[in-house]
Recover the amino acids of this structure.
């Protein structure tokens, strides 16, 4: 049988207050007949369209030597197709009922030797080595999943991931577009992201309330020599009000105090003398003026602009994490 482990995990994702019985809300006779499809407590919707499942697996261009990480396998509609092409699959599943269904589906077949099922929370899991990640992603872990993957070492080759459509379009958004955000910048700094296909909610059981889309993420190799916490820290400030000027965002409550504290720590570590009459606010404004970004808006700044601004702050000893 596939090896299932559960002792390392806890269930961090609790049921949504909005997500009560899907069969009651939708009147789905299939969901009412089979309680295994009452999956909202884990934010999970089972992909039932075989053509869509095959298209997702084909997009990954799997090789016979590949080790695949699948997140949220459900009853295994993607898993069985992955097993046909890959050397090994590690499937991380929160719902023990789903894990049991997947186990039964491959039991007694050659594929069972190629499958390991980990029962628990992906966010807390100790991940094995993998070449490819494929996921019909439980909605509430969309952002943690993306950043967990991009921080994983060694780098994987490609990830093919299904998300809520709005989240997916934010991942591929471009500067100047309505959805360009801190999320877009963070992900695109470390990877190339492409929108592959849209998937109707009618392709799932139970059907979700929103449409879905599939994206392909390819990590940049080698990764850019930028500390994520620093880049993200700058993004938190300037994307907080993305259509305000950069200068205005730095005047927001608490920002200057936080940056000055970071700067004093940096100065202490690097034996930099702090003058008694030093005006830290002027120091920040000088960086903004010298870089030419004081009146810019994050909504229209691309990644190169953000890196240039971050570098200028670092040269002045100002850090964001």
């Amino acid at each position: 049988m596939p090896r299932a482990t559960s002792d390392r995990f806890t269930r961090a994702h609790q049921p949504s207050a909005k997500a009560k019985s899907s069969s009651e809300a939708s009147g789905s006779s299939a969901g009412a007949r089979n309680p295994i499809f009452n999956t909202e407590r884990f934010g999970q919707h089972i992909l039932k369209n075989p053509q869509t499942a095959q298209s997702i697996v084909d997009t990954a261009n799997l090789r016979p030597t590949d080790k695949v990480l699948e997140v949220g396998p459900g009853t295994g509609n993607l898993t069985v197709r992955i097993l046909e092409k890959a050397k090994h699959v590690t499937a991380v599943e929160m719902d023990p009922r789903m894990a049991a269904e997947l186990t039964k589906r491959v039991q007694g077949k050659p594929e069972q030797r190629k499958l390991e099922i980990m029962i628990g929370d992906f966010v807390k899991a100790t991940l094995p080595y993998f070449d490819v990640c494929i996921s019909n992603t439980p909605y509430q872990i969309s952002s943690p999943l993306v950043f967990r993957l991009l921080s994983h070492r060694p780098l994987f080759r490609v990830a093919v991931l299904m998300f809520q459509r709005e989240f997916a379009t934010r991942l591929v958004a471009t500067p100047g577009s309505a959805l360009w955000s801190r999320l877009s910048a963070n992900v695109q700094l470390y990877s190339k992201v492409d929108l592959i296909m849209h998937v109707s909610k009618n392709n799932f059981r139970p059907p979700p309330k929103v449409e879905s889309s599939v994206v392909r993420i390819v990590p940049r190799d080698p990764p850019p020599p930028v500390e994520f916490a620093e880049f993200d820290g700058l993004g938190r400030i300037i994307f907080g009000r993305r259509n305000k000027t950069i200068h205005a965002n730095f005047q927001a409550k608490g920002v200057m105090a936080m940056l000055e504290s970071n700067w004093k720590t940096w100065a202490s570590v690097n034996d930099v003398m702090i003058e008694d009459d030093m005006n830290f606010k002027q120091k920040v404004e000088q960086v903004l003026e010298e870089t030419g970004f004081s009146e810019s808006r994050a909504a229209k700044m691309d990644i190169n602009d953000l890196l240039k601004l971050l570098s200028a702050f670092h040269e002045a000893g100002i850090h964001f994490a």
